[in-house]
Amino acid sequence: MTSFVQLRNPVHNGHALLMRDCRRQLESRGHSNPVLLLHPLGGWTKDDDVPLPVRMEQHRAVMDDGVLVRNSCFCIK
Hints:
The protein is α/β, with parallel strands linked by helices. 38% of the residues lie in helices and 19% in strands.
């Protein structure tokens, strides 16, 4: 089972809680290792959006800090 999240801005607490709860719900339904596809939008964005390299670093930090389970996240670069 895979869940998808596509963002044009950095992950904030609300996103992280949603992704963690999605994993918890999938595990409670018997999925042994649900995968999160974390997809930072890398094409056209708005002028006031956070630049892609900054968002990618923030995505790595979220996984390094254990907010998301690294071995079950697939992050598009």
